[in-house]
């Protein structure tokens, strides 16, 4: 059984993780914005400076490590049958600490950010209704999956719409996503519902 989650409305905040150093604890905050982004297959990560950023230099310095940690968590989730779909993560600022602000620490922070923040804030995606799973929709989904024929996804969107699906996340994703790697979560959801 697979589970699908996304961000339906923008969210912003501080992610505070806790580290214990020989009995002394420290909280290291990372300021973020989560946005719905149907044109993204899974999770897209960007560093974005805004007017209130004080330590954006640290974001720039450690961005590749944070992004690697986020991607690692997203990959682990997918292996466990959990899909985070259509999410844009903007890293806005972070506070630095000489003990934990290093490459490995930032990769760990990115990983924990997915587990403890994105996953908790994401909403389940309601599966495509059984009424919308016409024989055309199922056949198209099977063909797209078998052939990795992602150029057919707009046709699938039309077939779903003709069958009564009106979920803008699903339809917009099929029509606008730039990169379906390794597959499309909508196709996976349809195939999962027909197994």
Description:
This protein is α/β, with parallel strands linked by helices. Helices cover 44% and strands 24% of the residues. It folds into 2 domains: 3-124, Ribosomal Protein S5, domain 2; 130-194, no CATH class. It is built from 6 helices and 7 strands; from the N terminus they run E-E-E-E-H-E-E-H-E-H-H-H-H. The strands form 2 sheets. It has a 4-stranded mixed sheet, with helices on one face. Helix 1 (56-79) crosses helix 2 (103-121) and helix 3 (135-147) packs antiparallel against helix 4 (153-162). It is elongated and about 60 Å long. The model has no long low-confidence stretch (mean pLDDT 89).
Could you write a compact summary of the structure shown?
This protein is an alpha/beta fold and 195 residues long. 44% of the residues lie in helices and 24% in strands.
Kindly list the characteristics that best describe this protein.
Ribosomal Protein S5, domain 2, three-stranded mixed β-sheet, elongated, single chain, 195 residues, 2 domains, four-stranded mixed β-sheet, 24% strand, alpha/beta
